[in-house]
Write a structure and sequence with these properties.
31% helix; homodimer; seven-stranded antiparallel sheet
Chain lengths: 208, 208
């Protein structure tokens, strides 16, 4: 990569402290619960109690759902709460995306046990989730963005868990309010899943 | 629903004890972390420590990844670990699916903050994840199943969070190894997302 192709961060960078550190620990719990083999009911009841106590504590001083939504969507820039890249969302792997000067975007991610479909492989719907989001971010990077109208996914080979996946996307064309965007997930240089999307240039109002 | 259309459970039923109770508590933590507003860095560091301690405890006596995969995929019947219906996977909402005698399947689910895309609405990729999985289960219910080849999603209107979604799917045809399956997500009687999939009748070997 030359200096003129230095990538631009397009997703929120985890702070490794505060809420982001707690979410990273929650991700570790989700994965550990899946890795856990046979445990006694008593032992798991203790784990349930500990997790319920954490949730209880967080819920106690939380704002209402409406207040929280307004707060979440205030300000500009990248979201910190989405289920693909969000450092505040324990469901997100999280995927980290960068914009390149040629107009495309890319990211790398390793998926764990929580994203499994067929044995040892990513769930086809998880690949769809990653690609839908990445195509949306590619639209933001290109300038015209919107909501998914149609998304077509082609599964070429199984997408492996536990190894680095390379995800790329680019906006192909804009025709009035219709935006066409493509992308793919590859592993070891081979395409696993490709996506072709039509997005409509409209946005839902933000909560106030 | 008449007696001749009594639904058949097609997904694992949570036990509400043992690992399932711990996973339900982990889901509550994931959601509470997203609902949490401004908290001090010190307070969130405490939460991170508590969650890390739970993960540490679970990891200590866990089998190796290879052993765990063999164990996960032993036996027959529904999976307990997938990211859509799995009672052992905190990423799963979880969706619960039933088979009807007319050959179709259906389920109901309410999605929380963790599944958000546009403000107050489900992420388009989350709808894709739910539909890909539901189409796969519809194939199992019909008898011929396989891996996703092509999946086309059409987004008709935003899919709301915090209210009941109705998800349906059915196998339309089988032509050699090619299976065609459709499904949709609706809310309040209106279709939000529809899916049309081509599945290929092949299965990856289970880990041994």
């Amino acid at each position: 990569m030359t200096d003129t192709q230095r990538p631009t961060e397009l997703t929120a960078t985890p702070n490794n402290e505060g809420i982001d550190a707690a979410v990273a620990a929650a991700r570790r719990v989700v994965e550990a619960l899946l890795h856990t083999g046979d445990r006694s009911v008593v032992e798991m009841a203790q784990v349930a109690n500990q997790l319920d106590a954490v949730a209880e504590h967080l819920e106690q001083h939380a704002p209402t759902r409406e207040e929280r939504l307004v707060d979440m969507w205030s300000g500009e820039g990248v979201t910190r709460h989405d289920p693909v890249t969000g450092p505040q969302n324990a469901i997100a792997p999280p995927l980290h995306l960068s914009g390149l000067e040629d107009g495309s975007i890319e990211g790398r991610v390793v998926l764990g046990m929580a994203y499994q479909g067929p044995p040892g492989c990513a769930h086809g719907g998880i690949s769809a989730l990653l690609l839908d989001h990445t195509l949306g971010v590619a639209n933001h990077w290109a300038g015209d963005s919107g909501m998914t109208g149609t998304l077509t996914l082609r599964y070429h080979r199984p997408t492996p868990l536990f190894e680095e996946l390379h995800i790329t996307a680019r906006q192909e064309s804009v025709d009035g309010r219709k935006i066409r965007t493509t992308g793919e997930i590859s592993a070891g240089g081979e395409v696993c899943v490709s996506a072709d999307g039509i997005f409509i240039n409209k946005h839902l109002p933000r909560p106030r």
